[in-house]
Design a protein that fits this description.
heterodimer; A: about 375 residues; alpha/beta; Rossmann fold; Arc Repressor Mutant, subunit A; 3 domains; nine-stranded mixed beta sheet; three-stranded antiparallel beta sheet; 18 helices; about 45% helix; B: about 500 residues; Ribosomal Protein S5, domain 2; 2 domains; five-stranded parallel beta sheet; four-stranded mixed beta sheet; 23 helices; about 40% helix
Chain lengths: ~375, ~500
């Protein structure tokens, strides 16, 4: 305690913000209020009780236990240590109002009081499209997310997403595969050193190294459930256009879409076949007036980008199906089917159906899992 | 004052001959049984004494010693009661010793002198060898299977004693020919739609291939599996005898016909313990469910819910057709040649239709669920067939599907083809003989090569596919050459359980 004034003089204000953000029971609203009414250093002194609190902050501190708990937290999270940890992780700490704080969030209805950032902040000056969707995606949905990411990445558009399983991950994989100007921008709910989901470690690293990673949470914060909906508002706010690829009747991506509407961000949705559970949410968005996405050109048009430049369609190397196989493929293009289903719908024998499905699968037009077959890749035209 | 009576105990599914030696002498009144009797066996002292007294026979104050020879083997169960009683009566002179020559006695005594049936009479009678067995009347069927017309039956101890003393004839045997009274197994005609799963059943029955049914709840996996035993042919005489022995040893009720002729169907619950499934126990090594399914079908519903150790216990019998159980004092080999049919949901929530993207589970939960099954056990299923809920049109259709009787004929023809070819069902063809017995045509060879190159098939899977394709060719009336379409059908009956979405998209 005695050396605090010495350390304090050497510490930038961001160090205090980084420490305060990790206090127990420090909600975003409370942190916002603290930083609105006091400078970071003063806020720290207020929490310690050495400066008087004003307005809303006084009310918060008067609540049972808050003052005591936060005072304990000042011991647990000395700003010097927290700051050293952030520097070690290569993080930039941006309190609201910082000169490099993203402009798109400055006039947000609920701006993040502080952002922890890794990567290239300059990307936020480029064109940005959000791609979100369900974690339980179908093969078709994953393929759509990937191809949108690929197209946007090639066209130099950055893709904002949540780095979650399913659609989010595939959109970013697409961007990375494009190796174009477009970069992944990942907005995550946990601290930037807490990788979640773990199987996305590679994506996480790629976004940090050649794209941008943002989080409201200071390092070390686990992926708590209540943080995900809050994260979604940042995804919406950072996007110029938000594309929902697949969503069920309820889900995080619909929350993102609602947040986008609130912020006048264009919402687009990928249509799916009716009755397909993974498309219930997106289809209802379309009913509500979202623009349909049938390909990456639709998104580029919505961004008013000249889309002809991006339209380099890779040649499809797959052997084109012939004869009966085309009929079988068309049958599968509506929804996944089993062999039984194909045979029944087309009046084929099991042998014929199995042969045809085998040909389509080996050519790469369809994929099989659990006895079901679904179309993959760009559709047969 | 000494008498020796022949009897037997059961161990595993084998009988073991036991000679009951009874010595009656003067001295302090006592009744001792030696020769490693277990608890039930030792208690027979009290039952025998009461039964003898209740049958209006004498139990004087004397010293009775019973030895169960060979005396270094453990004896279990109550089947020795009758032999001990007869031995005592002979040693005491209430029954002429000469009369018990050439007879073997098995049965439990009631305190009122009645004879009760015991488990394992068939193997016991077989073990006693060249004697005429005397058994409780309710065990007649089992004894008859082994010993034929030489069997003697009785309802009470008194009847046995009277017959031995030539005071009354042996009780008449129940009417000669037995009629099978078993209800027929459920019929395939009840199954609507499900073309693929039906074909899977047919192939499994014809080739003896183990089958895994994968599908959401309500898709009819259990219903399909139950119809399997109707498709299998009647058991061959030697298998029938083995199955009868197992059923007898386990104390499971035998059909009215005496022998187990129809392929058994056993469906143990997933909470079953290892011992319940593979057999065991300390003294008698009772046969487990897999032995009771010998010659027939073992159906494991909700495969993923079985304890992993229990499932691993199935691996050896699946390969060898016998289960060798060893305990500190003894070991036994029980027959366990069964057709394994298992059913599982594609994911733990069981919701939706099973179609991709139509369930509640996140990927990690699916992965955990599938991992429980993966590995060596999953590899032993030649057939992994996806089952879907039948569509509404099929459910409401008036005409049923093809009935069991017709399918069973096809199955039998295919089995005959296989048996003539090499003398075993196709599932057992050794890998070395596959090229000779299941030659592939050019295209089939190419598509299998393709699958192997893309890492879709392991070496073991490759052989399994060829065996299944052989069966399909036999079923569809093909010639000696296995055609590409049969290979493709076999491949489509080897559903890959989705392990991760990334893999699915690849």
């Amino acid at each position: 305690m005695t050396d605090r004034p010495v350390a304090a003089s050497a510490l930038p204000p961001e160090a205090y913000v980084a420490s305060l953000a990790g206090f127990r029971n420090m909600s975003l609203h409370r942190l916002g209020a603290l930083l609105r009414h006091h400078s970071p250093e003063d806020a720290w002194q207020v929490v310690l009780g050495e400066l008087p609190a004003t307005g809303l902050v006084a009310k918060v501190l008067a609540e049972t236990g808050v003052r005591a708990m936060w005072r304990r937290c000042t011991h647990e999270r000395p700003p010097a240590d927290i700051w050293a940890h952030c520097l070690e992780l290569g993080l930039v700490v941006l309190p609201y109002g910082h000169e490099r704080y993203p402009a798109g969030l400055l006039d947000d209805p609920f701006p993040p009081p502080v952002l922890f950032v890794r990567g290239d902040l300059g990307l936020l000056a480029g064109r940005r499209v959000g791609i979100v969707g369900t974690r339980n995606a179908t093969a078709a949905g994953r393929e759509a997310a990937r191809s949108l990411g690929l197209g946007l990445g090639a066209a130099g558009v950055h893709v904002v997403s949540g780095l979650a399983r399913g659609i989010d991950g595939y959109a970013h994989r697409g961007v990375l595969a494009a190796q174009g100007e477009g970069r992944p921008i990942g907005v995550v709910a946990s601290g930037l050193d807490v990788i979640y989901p773990r199987e996305h470690r590679d994506l996480w690293e790629a976004a940090g190294n050649c794209g941008l990673l943002l989080s409201e949470a200071p390092p070390g914060v686990p992926p708590e459930p209540h943080r995900f909906p809050l994260r979604n508002r940042i995804v919406a706010a950072l996007s110029e256009v938000l594309v929902v690829v697949e969503s069920r009747e309820r889900g995080g991506s619909l929350i993102t879409a609602a947040q986008a509407v609130e912020r006048d961000v264009t919402v687009m949705a990928v249509p799916g076949s009716i009755g397909k559970r993974a498309s219930l949410g997106t289809n209802s968005l379309l009913c509500d007036g979202a623009a349909p996405v049938t390909g990456v050109d639709d998104v580029l048009t919505a961004l008013s980008l000249q889309h002809s430049r991006s339209a380099v369609v890779a040649a499809d190397l797959r052997a084109r199906p012939r004869g009966e196989d085309i009929v079988v493929y068309r049958e599968l293009s509506h929804e996944p089917r089993t062999i039984d289903g194909v045979a029944l719908a087309l009046g084929l024998s099991l042998v014929e159906a199995a042969m045809s499905l085998a040909r389509l699968e080996s050519a790469g037009w369809i994929a099989a899992a659990d006895g079901w077959f679904e179309c993959v890749g760009s559709p047969l035209r | 004052m000494l008498a020796a009576v022949r009897s037997a105990t059961v161990f595993g599914v084998e009988g073991r001959p036991v000679t009951v030696e009874v010595h009656v002498s003067t001295g302090l009144p006592a009744f001792q049984i030696v020769g490693l009797p277990d608890e039930a066996c030792r208690e027979s002292r009290d039952r025998v004494r009461a039964a003898v007294l209740s049958s209006a026979l004498a139990w004087p104050s004397c010293r009775v010693t019973v030895n169960l020879a060979p005396s270094n083997q453990r004896k279990g169960g109550s089947g020795l009661d009758l032999a001990i009683a007869i031995g005592f009566l002979a040693a005491h002179g209430q029954v002429p010793v000469s009369q018990i020559e050439g007879l073997g006695f098995v049965g439990e005594l009631g305190l009122d002198g009645s004879l009760r049936q015991v488990a394992g009479v068939a193997p016991m009678v077989a073990a006693m060898g060249d004697v005429r067995p005397v058994v409780p009347i309710n065990n007649y069927r089992e004894a008859w299977c082994v010993s034929g017309e030489g069997v003697r039956v009785a309802r009470t101890l008194r009847e046995v004693v009277d017959a031995l003393n030539a005071e009354a004839p042996w009780p008449v045997l129940p009417d000669g020919e037995f009629v099978d009274d078993e209800p027929p197994p459920p019929d395939l005609a009840d199954v609507r739609g499900q073309a693929m799963a039906r074909l899977g059943l047919e192939v499994a029955a014809a080739g003896g291939h183990h089958m895994l049914l994968v599908g959401p709840p309500g898709s009819g996996k259990t219903m399909l599996a139950q119809r399997m035993s109707g498709l299998l042919p009647m058991l061959a005489p030697e298998v029938s005898l083995e199955a009868t022995m197992v059923h007898s040893a386990a104390g499971v009720r035998l059909p009215a016909g005496g022998m187990v002729r129809r392929a058994p169907f056993r469906a143990p619950h997933h909470s079953s313990s290892m011992v319940a499934l593979v057999g065991g126990g300390s003294t008698s090594l009772r046969p487990g469910e897999i032995s009771l399914a010998h010659g027939g079908v073992l159906f494991l519903d909700e495969l993923g819910e079985f304890a992993p150790s229990v499932l691993d216990g199935l691996r050896q019998p699946l390969e060898e057709g016998v289960i060798r159980i060893a305990r500190a004092r003894a070991s036994a080999a029980l027959p366990a040649k069964f057709l394994l049919i298992a059913a599982t949901n594609p994911c733990p929530c069981g919701g939706g239709t099973g179609a991709p993207g139509d369930c509640q589970c996140d990927e990690a939960a699916r992965l955990r669920y599938v991992r429980r099954l993966s590995g060596p056990l999953l590899d032993r299923f030649d057939l992994r067939v996806g089952v879907t809920r039948p569509c509404v049109d099929d459910l409401l259709a008036t005409g049923g599907g093809e009935p069991t009787a017709i399918v069973a004929v096809r199955v039998n023809e295919a089995r005959q083809r296989a048996l003539q070819r090499i003398g075993m069902v196709n599932a057992n063809i050794p890998a070395a003989h596959l090229d000779a017995l299941a030659p592939l045509d050019q295209e089939a060879r190419q598509s299998l090569r393709d699958q192997l190159e893309r890492d879709r098939l392991t070496g073991r899977g490759y052989h399994r596919i060829r065996r299944v394709a052989r069966t399909i060719t036999d079923l569809l009336g093909g010639g000696d050459l296995v055609l590409d379409e049969h290979v493709q059908l076999a491949l489509s009956m080897r559903v890959r359980l989705s392990v991760s979405s990334r893999e699915r998209a690849a």
